[in-house]
């Protein structure tokens, strides 16, 4: 009787994120060669009011930072996005600096379309992610505007 193929071990996302943030901080927010630029979000839990730390890929748009709530094309929005909707003022770490921002979801239109296309530079496959979750959600594009 043939043996069952081994499934890959589940990813411990929390441990992975902690390692990414530790490396990010150790390098002063400068990405390694060939790695995308990141921003570390300090969100406040929508239900718990607990602070959560989440590294995400980012691009700049003028003075604002832009992130996409892709979650790999899963059918539900990522928790960090639900937290940002509930508590839109948050702290971020970006390129060795820490500051407060106000998050807004970019509305449908030409600006959102442009930003979504530009996110492909840091999230290869973002279009496939949108195709994967098209039936349940549109991937939010989030603008982080510095407030301090």
Commentary on this structure:
This protein has one domain: Electron Transport, Fmn-binding Protein, Chain A (Pnp Oxidase, Chain A, Roll), CATH 2.30.110.10. It is built from 4 helices and 7 strands. The chain is α+β, with helices and mostly antiparallel strands. 27% of the residues lie in helices and 29% in strands. The chain has a 7-stranded antiparallel sheet, sandwiched between helices. The mean pLDDT is 92. The protein is globular.
Task: Give the topology string: H per helix, E per strand.
Answer: HEEEEHEEHHE
Q: How far apart, in Å, are the first and last alpha carbons?
A: 65 Å
The CATH superfamily is known as: Electron Transport, Fmn-binding Protein, Chain A
Helix content: 25-40%
| Strand order in the sheet with the most strands | 2-1-5-6-7-4-3
* Spans where pLDDT lies below 50 across 5 or more residues: none
Major β-sheet annotation: 7 strands, antiparallel
**How many β strands by DSSP?**
7
Outline type: globular
Mean pLDDT: 92
CATH class, please? Mainly Beta
User: Number of DSSP helices?
Assistant: 4
* Rg computed from alpha carbons, rounded to a whole number of angstroms: 16 Å
Structural class comes to alpha+beta
| Count of individual domains | 1
Q: Which CATH architecture?
A: Roll
Strand content: 25-35%
Question: Quick gist of this model?
Answer:
The protein is α+β, with helices and mostly antiparallel strands and 148 residues long. It has one domain (13-24, 37-146): Electron Transport, Fmn-binding Protein, Chain A (Pnp Oxidase, Chain A, Roll).
